[in-house]
Amino acid sequence: MRDLRVAVIGAGPAGIYAADILANNHENATIDIIERLPAPYGLVRYGVAPDHPRIKEIIKALLRVLRKDRIRFIGNVDYGNDVKLEELRTFYDAIVFATGAMDDRRLDIPGIDLPGSHGAADFVSWYDGHPDVPREWPLDAEQVAVLGAGNVALDVARMLAKTGDEQLVTEIPPNVYEGLKSNKAKDIHVFARRGPAQIKFSPLELRELAHSPNVDVVVHADGFEIDAGSEQAIQRNRQTKQVVNTLLKWLDNPPSTKAHRIHIHFCEAPAEILGTDRVAGLRTERMELTGDGGVRGTGEFTDWPVQAVYRAVGYRSAPLPDVPFDHVAAVIPNDAGRVFEDDEQVPGIYTTGWIKRGPVGLIGHTKSDASQTIDCILEDQDALPRAESREPDAVLELLRDKGVEFTTTEGWVNLDTHEIAVGEAAGRTRIKVVERDEMVRFSRVPAAD
pLDDT at position 115, please? Predict the structure, then answer.
């Protein structure tokens, strides 16, 4: 095998898995994982709710990859600004884009841009301590609507319903705790446009709604439809059966007596966000099941007196400078990971993860997806354009010359150690550092004696 230098843009699971698979299958490959943020792990760090620490156990496996001899993490480097595609081609034979999907998919209904209408991805970034979002979040609404029928909608509803003190055992930073502590939300209404057998909640995520001593879950009978098609779905899929059984138990709950309530409504599609200067309500249309998993509108509308709306209708990838992008599908056009433009393969450019296939699938899908892309690189290696500058430190010198204060794997370990130490002093597992400058400062590797 020829020696191979590869850059992976994005240090989430997709990018790290791609680097690992390539290193394991090519003994002469060296891989740099270039990340916009000072810390690695992408949505594992900035997309998982803080009260789900068990999901973050994957970080241990990802760190083992970053510590491999032929894999290098280069953080706090913004592709397109700090370094451009043509510059990367100077140092690497192949470039894999694995930048994921961090933006909210747009919901085109009247009133969607009113103040008080929020994208779920923005809220998730705030409560996960993302360095590039505002430090404060408006939490003055007593009645809130959450639009969506997936696990992100459940995360948003749960974070809005639980008290700040309940979250104080997690890794949330002080600004998030103060925000949640002052949260005025009492009733959080989750609206799903289809029925209970068609939603995408996972059984575990759904059951966790009721784990808080301060939160009641109310499933509303109106719209709770189970038709023949739903019965078939329940019998075919064990998880669907578990979800429906959990919802049926809550359907019989007595009236709520707790201070905070999560209401779940089925067959209600958002039609309009009401208000002039800010959100003053939500109008939904009652839907009916069509027997094939779909729904159709009935023309019956209901207005809900909410003061804030959170859109959890899916993530969307953002286009990247100098990289082909399908703006309709919101992915990089590709065939098995090989990037194409105008039906022609772009030499040396590949993609993996959500920006390759769309924001669907779990960690297992991410691994198989990365493997498919790496197979393409291995098949193409003899035809790849050969980078002119092959010294590993050459790209670092470029960044230094530009004044980019990049971080490293060792730097991440420093930051990780600091966050854990601060957390342990407060009786918690970790407290996140939020400010980018502070993240970089704690990531600095001490100079050798």
Answer: 97
**pLDDT tens readout for residues 217-233:** 999 999 999 998 999 99
Enumerate domains of the chain plus CATH numbers: 4-102+317-443 (3.40.50.720), 104-315 (3.50.50.60)
Share of the chain above pLDDT 90, in %: 91
- The full length of the chain comes to 449
Instruction: Give residue 445's pLDDT.
Output: 67
Q: What angle (nearest 5°) sits at the alpha carbon of residue 255, between those of residues 250 and 260?
A: 85
Q: Write out the DSSP string of 246-261.
A: HHHHHHTPPPP-SSEE
| Total Cβ atoms within 10 A of residue 21 | 23
Strands of 90-236, DSSP E = 94-97, 103-104, 117-119, 143-147, 187-191, 215-219
- SS3 label, residue 250: helix
The torsion angles phi and psi of 201, rounded to 5 degrees, stand at -65, 145
- 4 with 354: CB under 8 angstroms? no
Are the C-beta atoms of 378 and 352 separated by less than 8 Å?
A: no
